[in-house]
Design brief:
This is TRAP transporter large permease protein. By secondary structure, the chain is an all-alpha fold. It is built from 21 helices and no strands. It has 2 domains: 39 residues, no CATH class; 370 residues, no CATH class.
């Protein structure tokens, strides 16, 4: 009876419109009471769920991403990328993709990346003849690489829930798939721009290369400092987040001088609010996860799935389809917290590498970030562009198809994810 309460109670609460954290925590609590597991296990697991050292990196990386966003780093990166690409048919769309990938290596958050780049790029692209719906689609899709290209908040949460995969290994594993996902977007972006004549009005002079490089180098150095420090062992992922914050403050207050005291207060307030929401969900999901694992509910579901068909390829295909569907409805953090207790037994049954498995799941969720109806990145870019999400469907499906191709390559060739961490000694 208790396992039924756990799953059916969660689904019922979600259908009633309860917040995700409430649905997870309440369903877990009710099942614990039904199974007589001890009500004191609820506060214990709420505390234990967030009393984990790696989770310290999440609020700090959120703060770092907001600091770089408000400091105007995106604007300087756009100028530098424009100096490289130049004024040509589809040039600004290519610039948008490249800038999103670099910003993803700073913020680790798709919506933050989308907001920073869309604010700078959409007005410029509109002047050059790009439809706002197309621009919003391109930026939303490219910003999804932020949860793949390290540092990634999603990878940190995955590492906490799947201890066999370390944060440095996941960061290294996400590098090639993240770049591959971003570059895959260039094909439809360039083809659509040339087919429809987008960007022909962009006849402005090319920015001076060396001057734009000098201005953008501060933003370009951020991922180098973060990843370089992790690789050399100078600091842990949590310490890397703190370094990113102080580096961002230096750039925003001393170099670009765009961060005022009022702006800093707003950044701290926004980061606190975003971090509180994420950590509250993590804390209450721990009750759900503990209840399910203690009662054996997750293992039972995994065994049923494995024995329903012993075909590993079919299970993998169905799993990817399910993740893509859920990614359209929920954010990546929520899906990790809901599904990983169910998926890890399946991963163990088929002896899948936990690092590759984490990258595969995250790529699915990255695609969901810009696939309607609940695409969080697309919501952000549509708000900046002042358009309805429905107007982007015809454009965004091209981006979805391109990134699905990148996902298929990573699924079929796991070495695309495992080669870098293997070379660095993070996986055997």
């Amino acid at each position: 009876m208790a396992p039924s309460i756990l799953f059916l109670g969660f689904l019922a609460l979600m259908l009633l419109g309860a917040p995700l954290a409430v649905a997870l925590g309440l369903a877990g609590t009710l099942s614990i009471m039904e199974a007589n597991l001890g009500i004191l296990s609820v506060p214990t697991n709420v505390y234990a769920g967030i009393a984990k050292y790696p989770l310290l990196a999440i609020p700090v990386f959120i703060l770092a991403g907001l600091i770089f966003e408000r400091a105007g780093v995106a604007k300087q990166l756009v100028t530098f990328a424009s100096a490289i690409v130049g004024a040509r048919n589809g040039g600004l769309a290519v610039v948008a993709v490249l800038v999103c990938m670099v910003m993803g290596g700073i913020s680790g958050s798709g919506p933050a990346d989308a907001a920073a780049v869309a604010t700078v790029m959409i007005p410029s692209m509109a002047k050059a003849g790009y439809p706002r719906a197309f621009s919003a689609s391109v930026i939303a899709a490219a910003a999804a690489t932020a949860i793949l290209i390290p540092p990634s908040v999603a990878f940190i949460i995955y590492s906490v829930m799947v201890p066999q995969a370390s944060v440095p290994a996941l960061f290294a594993a996400g590098l090639i798939p993240g770049i591959l996902a971003g570059l895959s977007l260039l094909a439809p972006v360039v083809w659509l721009s040339r087919r429809h004549g987008f960007g022909l009005a962009d006849t402005g002079p090319r920015p001076p290369f060396w001057r734009s490089l000098r201005q953008a180098v501060w933003g370009l150095l951020a991922p180098v400092i973060i990843l370089g420090g992790l690789r050399t062992g100078a600091f842990t992922p949590t310490e890397a987040a703190a370094v990113a914050v102080f580096y961002g403050l230096l750039v925003g207050t001393v170099v670009y001088r765009t961060l005022t005291l009022r702006a800093l207060f707003d950044v701290l307030a926004d980061a606190a609010e975003m971090s509180a929401v994420v950590l509250l969900i993590i804390a209450l999901s721990s009750v759900f996860a503990w209840a399910g694992s203690t009662m054996g509910a997750f293992d039972a579901v995994a065994d049923a799935a494995v024995h329903a068909t012993g075909n590993e390829v079919l299970i993998l295909l169905l799993l990817n389809i399910a993740l893509l569907g859920l990614g359209m409805l929920l954010d990546a953090v929520s899906i990790f917290l809901i599904l990983l207790p169910l998926l890890t037994p399946i991963m163990a049954a088929f002896h899948w590498d936990p690092v590759w498995f984490g990258v595969m799941i995250t790529m699915n969720l990255a695609i969901g970030q810009f696939t309607p109806p609940m695409a969080v990145n697309l919501m952000v870019t549509c708000r900046v562009a002042g358009i309805a999400m429905e107007s982007t469907v015809g454009w965004v499906l091209w981006m979805v198809g391109a990134m699905l191709g990148a996902l298929a390559l990573v699924v079929v060739f796991p070495e695309l994810a495992l080669w870098v961490p293997r070379q660095l000694g993070y996986v055997g």
